[in-house]
């Protein structure tokens, strides 16, 4: 395996977050009853004319700029001809030789090392409909077609074949998703089909300049599926080459249940689609002043925000990278820091307990019931000594499940920290009297025993004693 290297390029389709479709006024709402959001234009009925959605063009330019692309002053729409039930016109309006954006790049980080991945082009097109199979695709007696998605505006982002492993492919897609989400042009929800990824994969002997025969992988709807599918396909192609067999240029699908890629059809070339300029749509002539205006309105992007988190909040590089992975998480963190000015402590809670509970419950940051203000209030209670760090864990869990304010949780559950010196002094005396062996060991130089004794005091006070006071009193009495 070490004698070969993979060459990987990704084609990523992203639905733009417009209210209406790219060439008509039909709604882009997700999840509506089948075939509710359709009209004569997106159904391709005779005699209708498409009119381009200006907001979709603006979003495409915005995405191109965020990906360091050159925006074309002149681009056009083309007809991509193929026959499939979910394509009512029997052609898709896309862009072929004159896309709206070209020659971009982004940077990924693999094991602490930055790598630049080139972006060949960003072009606009309309989405197709959706086939609803009555069973599995291979056994279904018939399929239904939902045209709600037909005509939803897409951008297709085509990378250079600069990736060499499944890890790099996943890192690229994660970074691309983050950048697009930061711009606000798409929600990039893979589970809803807002972001879909195809991978072109070939293998070649290490050191060889010539590319091998590539296969295109489809049907990868998660980062995990992308990693597994790319890894499998690389190994499959290497085994073919090693055994003297030929890799066939084809389109393959990923079967997640079986963990294998399966052949779908021979891979089409551009001439198979018989591209030609769409006669119903005028070319796009983009004014540079409009491009400059869109560029000036770009938000702070992930790399810039990560660098600022390191310099402004003095966070470790890893913390900053995790916290800026999505715009929503970074916003949540910053709102909390503005209310409780201890950036590292806030980072620990967001990356620790909050992330753990989000993963366990399957929630995104936007679905979390704890607001930044509530988290800041809980940290202030810790800072004042009202609750201990251990009690805070209990309070936080209740807040996560119910959305209650921390003060309310503390009051309802009677979780106020005990800071009464006389009361703690009494419990410490009882613990010392009940554990003579541990006291003897401590006085003999085994200082770690203090942790056990502190634990006994905390147990006796159901975790409510002020840990700092307990430590101090124990050491004074044992000395």
- Specify Rg, calculated over alpha carbons: 29 Å
Round the mean pLDDT to the nearest integer and report it: 91
Gross morphology is elongated
The neighbouring-strand order within the major sheet is 2-6-7-10-1-11-12-13-14
Protein name: Aspartyl/glutamyl-tRNA(Asn/Gln) amidotransferase subunit B
EC number: 6.3.5.-
GO molecular function, one term: glutaminyl-tRNA synthase (glutamine-hydrolyzing) activity
Family: Belongs to the GatB/GatE family. GatB subfamily.
Short description:
The protein is of the alpha+beta class and 479 residues long.
Describe this structure in words.
- This protein is of the alpha+beta class.
- The chain has three domains: 9-205 and 268-293, no CATH class; 300-413, no CATH class; 421-478, Arc Repressor Mutant, subunit A (Orthogonal Bundle).
- The chain has 15 helices and 16 strands.
- The protein has helices at 54-66, 166-183, 223-242, 288-296, 302-313, 317-323, 327-339, 343-361, 372-384, 389-402, 406-413, 421-434, 436-443, 449-460, 467-478; strands spanning 4-15, 70-71, 74-75, 78-81, 91-94, 101-110, 113-126, 130-133, 143-146, 153-159, 195-205, 215-220, 250-255, 260-266, 276-277, 284-285.
- The strands form four sheets. It has a nine-stranded mixed sheet with strand order 2-6-7-10-1-11-12-13-14. Strands 5-4-15 form a three-stranded antiparallel sheet, with no helix packed on it.
- Helix 5 (302-313) packs across helix 6.
- The longest helix has 20 residues, at 223-242.
- The chain is elongated and about 90 Å long.
- The mean pLDDT is 91.
